[in-house]
Amino acid sequence: MLSRQWIHGWLLLLPALAFIFLFTHIPAITTIWNSFQSTPRGRRPSQFVGLDNYERLIGDPVFWKVLVNNLWFALGTIPVSIALSIAMALFVNRAFAGRSLVRMAYFTPTVLPLIAVANIWLFFYTPGFGLIDQVLGAFGRGQSNLLGSPDTALGAIIVVSIWKEAGFFMIFYLAALQAIPPQLAEAARIEGAGGWTIFRRITFPMMMPTTLFVSVNAVINAFRLVDHIFILTGGGPDNASSLLLYYIYETSFRFWDTAYGATLTVVMLALLGLFAIGQFFLFDRKVHYK
To answer: Which domain holds residue 16?
Structure first.
């Protein structure tokens, strides 16, 4: 009987396991293997080149530039998106007139396609005619080219990403807030605790499982952005707004150097793995599950 249930359980899991191996594990193993190969050209097949692609990566100045860009992008989007989503969740968790409308307004950017979001903000950023320049012109400011300047291009994309992600993370924090027993805050108020103390000592610690989940997703989102860059800047000017995944796309599909693209992909996956492990170790003692 036990053997029968065991077989039945594995048969139920088999379709999901097949898809995981087919679309996750096998492509990952193939990518790692391709990073040790050369790119096939015409009738010339790929050949095993060992660590040559990784040596090329170490000496590639564009790789180091886009990696630094990606780290700055992550530092600019992750903390701000999480803090903004917590603030929005705290606000819409209260009872007030029009709360459902405000929740919908906060969540609306999340349901928009990435290409649509990029085109909306492309209109905002257009020099001379965009909404930002129209507003600044009313105060006597000249034209700005936020997407065309190396100093502001990456920052402009960071703003778009925060606007897109904060509403999505807000939903998880709102669910976490509604799962916290209200008696805890009431008991703290009876003891004389203020709003900030309640948030710091009760609310935020109770939301730590959600914070861990959101932070892992935020790191992944920070390293998988392509659509906004493709529409807004094309990685320019002078790779000032190019990120690691966009560089992988350019290398693999525009320049058709698939072996070097596989090498870049392996490095990106290794970085994401290290960040994920670091996050779990960082939050391990602070996360309390019911």
So the answer is: 1-34
Output DSSP code: residue 91: H
Record the tokens describing residue 257, joined without a space.
């150097």
Q: Is the residue at 290 inside a domain?
A: no
Give, for all 290 residues of the chain, the pLDDT tens digit: 557 788 888 888 888 889 988 888 898 899 999 999 888 887 788 888 889 999 999 999 999 999 999 999 999 999 999 999 999 999 999 888 888 899 888 988 888 888 888 888 988 888 878 888 888 777 777 778 888 888 899 999 999 999 999 999 999 999 999 988 888 888 888 888 888 888 888 888 888 889 988 988 999 899 988 888 988 888 888 899 999 999 999 998 888 889 999 999 999 989 988 888 887 777 766 666 55
Residue 194's contacts (CB-CB under 8 Å, 6 or more residues apart) are none
Residues 26 and 113 in one domain: no
Chain mean position to CA 212? 14
Residue 51 sits in the same domain as residue 144: yes
Q: Which residues of 36-46 are buried (b: 16+ CB within 10 A; e: fewer)?
A: bbbbeeeeeee
What is the rounded distance in angstroms from the CA atom of residue 191 to the CA atom of residue 168?
35
- Whether residue 41 is contained in a domain is answered as no
Task: State the total domains in the chain.
Answer: 2
Measured over the CA atoms of residue 271, residue 62, residue 50 and residue 40, the dihedral's sign is: positive
Reduced to 3 states, what is the DSSP secondary structure of residue 37? Answer: strand
Maximum CA pair distance of the chain?
A: 81
